[in-house]
Write a structure and sequence with these properties.
Two copies of one chain form a homodimer. With about 200 residues, chain A is an all-alpha fold. The radius of gyration of chain A is 19 Å and the shape is elongated. The mean pLDDT of chain A is about 95. Chains A and B meet through helix 1, helix 6, helix 7, helix 8 and helix 9 of A and helix 1, helix 6, helix 7, helix 8 and helix 9 of B.
């Protein structure tokens, strides 16, 4: 990386937790200047606007979250075990970024706000749901999951329950809500199995 | 109500959707002035600070949401039917306030922000969870729900799943995620029944 690229990357890494914690409206360019020790002119050499910086910070944050949530999942044999692992992973490490899940934060922060960030949050949620639905579909094809199960419903339920539980856990300052959600999701996932795989 | 009280109430009702949609940092006193047509001096005659106004707006919003979510539930016979009704009510009318659920919005907006609003969101979530847990406890006492069921887990799962599904539904601009979450929760709730109540 050139010196300019190194600086750009450093700005993104320092700005990502700020935007994640404070939201687009709540994080000012001054906040980023304070965190990076850079002047306004230096920031605007790398990003044409606060939105462009927020977009780069969001993509950096979600790429890191997604990696933590899904890395190595493909190696787990058995559809239900793979889904249970995905749930456990989230319960144990819901977010690697200070401020909680960047997808949920941006979704809530921008649902009546910045349309570009809102669109990116939607893409992120749909990509995550898509990955879960495909695991369920494969399970049906392999005969491990009952044919009546709707992959989309399972994906929506897992994403909604985990994200909602993270919100409650962060508010309460402990992991109880996440752990309770994990137990309930495990119960639902066990119910997906075909008779011979029970 | 005196003329002053009427004005105060009108300010709260006009400010509540603004704070709910834009968040504490994203909603300025200027926004409230624009919405109400009042001068800054008039607003500060009724509220000593933006925080005091935001607190009143939050309490107004959550009181309305809670009423919609729980009104008439006590009249429903049968624990599982009552819980299913609570879920259906949320799926059909997740929020009466523009901007989505004020509890979730404030929880996400203020988890690294305003501590007074954060505390109120925590109180609101815990009150809601408490009501659900008590319904489950009563069901266990009445012999309608299996003794092994943990009321706290059911409360955490219902609140997390509904709030998370609302986030996804608002982002996607349709009710599919909420409806899917409702079906999954119904499945979990049916599993709570004692043998003789199945």
């Amino acid at each position: 990386m050139s010196k300019g690229e190194v600086t750009r990357q450093r700005i993104i890494e320092e700005a990502a937790p700020l935007f994640n914690q404070r939201g687009f409206a709540g994080c000012s360019i001054q906040d980023v200047m304070d965190a990076t020790g850079l002047e306004k002119g230096a920031l605007y050499r790398h990003f044409s606007s606060k939105e462009e910086l927020a977009v780069a910070a969001f993509l950096y944050a979600t790429t890191r979250s997604t990696r933590t949530r899904t890395e190595g999942l493909d190696e787990i044999e058995g559809t239900v075990d793979r889904l249970r692992c995905l749930v456990r992973r989230f319960v144990e490490t819901p977010s690697v970024m200070p401020g909680g899940c960047p997808l949920m934060n941006t979704a809530i922060d921008c649902d009546d706000g910045n349309p570009t960030l809102r669109r990116l949050a939607l893409d992120g949620i749909q990509a995550w749901k898509g990955r879960i639905a495909r695991i369920v579909e494969e399970g049906i094809e392999r005969g491990e999951v009952r044919r009546q199960v709707e992959p989309r419903r399972i994906a929506n339920t897992i994403v909604a329950t985990l994200e909602g539980a993270l919100m409650v856990s962060r508010l309460e300052g402990n992991k109880v809500a996440l752990q309770d959600a994990g137990v309930s999701l495990d119960g639902m996932l066990d119910g997906l199995r075909c008779g011979e795989h029970r």
